Amino acid sequence: MNGTRVIAVDGPAASGKSTVARRLAERLGALVLDTGLFYRALAWLALQRGISPDDGERLAALVDAFHVVAEPLPGQRARTARVLVGGRDVTSELHLPVVDRIVSRVARQQFVRTALLEPQRRAVSGEWAVVAGRDVGTTVFPDAVVKVYLVASPEERARRRAEQRGQATPEQIARELADILERDRTDARQSVRAPDAVVVDTDGLSVEQVVDSIERLVRVRTGDSSTRGSAGGVRPPLA
Ligand code: DC
């Protein structure tokens, strides 16, 4: 493993990891890797091939059936990881409700977690990367140069989720809250805060405020003094 150029962003479901990681990578000119995609790719393959999401051994044997490539999306500087199966980009299918429903069962399998370690590390391969997930700072890149653990109250996460779906009604927020509490319970074993992670409580903060505080931390930790103490303005990417 080589995490000397990795910024690990961990946290529970709907804590804003993916959004924050994408914005931070864009500012730093780094690759962004959402490790949930690896578990989602295996869940997608399980559905395609009629494999039980609880059959860890058979699922672990499928890690070579998909590839993760990193390309810039139109109009963006950060390179975003995408998932290919047999040369076809299936990334947009990985967030379908059918995948959502089984992915935490897939992620609970120890065979799967072990088999996915190498592919996750390979996808980064020594370049600057913001890597989001549940166990990035503890297991995938325990040597990450910066580790943050995002937290937000379940109520705040439920409200954000409902807003993202464009349905911030009290009923929808209540449904999201029930779902988040259930996911917190099923993901509890995987979602661990590294002892050396900086906890960022995002309640009441905007995405930009969260990204600002992590960017400051990254530039101080990496010895990049060019922006230390400055507010706003264009920041150079990391070398
Ligand atoms: O963040 P997400 O919703 O895309 O994650 C999908 C599932 O994978 C979820 O059940 C948590 C799990 N996961 C994990 O166990 N470890 C990771 N590093 C990333 C995701």
What does this molecule look like?
Helices cover 44% and strands 16% of the residues. With 239 residues, the chain is α/β, with parallel strands linked by helices. The protein has a domain at 1-16 and 134-221: Rossmann fold (3-Layer(aba) Sandwich), CATH 3.40.50.300. Strands 2-6-1-7-8 form a 5-stranded parallel sheet. The longest helix has 18 residues, at 170-187. Mean pLDDT is 90; it is low at 227-234.
Computed CA radius of gyration, to the nearest angstrom: 18 Å
CATH class of the domain at 1-16 and 134-221: Alpha Beta
Overall geometry comes to: globular
Query: How many strands, what sense, and barrel or not for the largest sheet?
Result: 5 strands, parallel
Give the low-confidence spans: 227-234
The N- to C-terminal Cα distance equals 20 Å
Number of helices: 10
CATH superfamily of the domain at 1-16 and 134-221: P-loop containing nucleotide triphosphate hydrolases
Strand order of the largest sheet: 2-6-1-7-8
How many strands in all? 8
Describe this protein with a few key phrases.
239 residues; alpha/beta; Rossmann fold; five-stranded parallel sheet; 10 helices; 8 strands; binds 2'-deoxycytidine-5'-monophosphate
Short synopsis of the structure:
This protein has 239 residues and is α/β, with parallel strands linked by helices. It contains ten helices and eight strands.
Layout: helices, strands, pairs:
Elements: E1 6-10, H1 17-28, E2 31-34, H2 36-49, H3 56-60, E3 67-72, E4 79-85, E5 88-89, H4 97-107, H5 110-115, H6 117-124, E6 129-133, H7 136-140, E7 146-151, H8 154-164, H9 170-187, E8 198-201, H10 207-221
Parallel strand pairs: 1-6, 1-7, 2-6, 7-8
Antiparallel strand pairs: 3-4, 4-5
Helix pairs in contact: 1-10, 2-4, 8-9
This protein binds 2'-deoxycytidine-5'-monophosphate.
2'-deoxycytidine-5'-monophosphate binds at residues 13, 35-36, 39-40, 103-104, 107, 133-136, 187, 190.
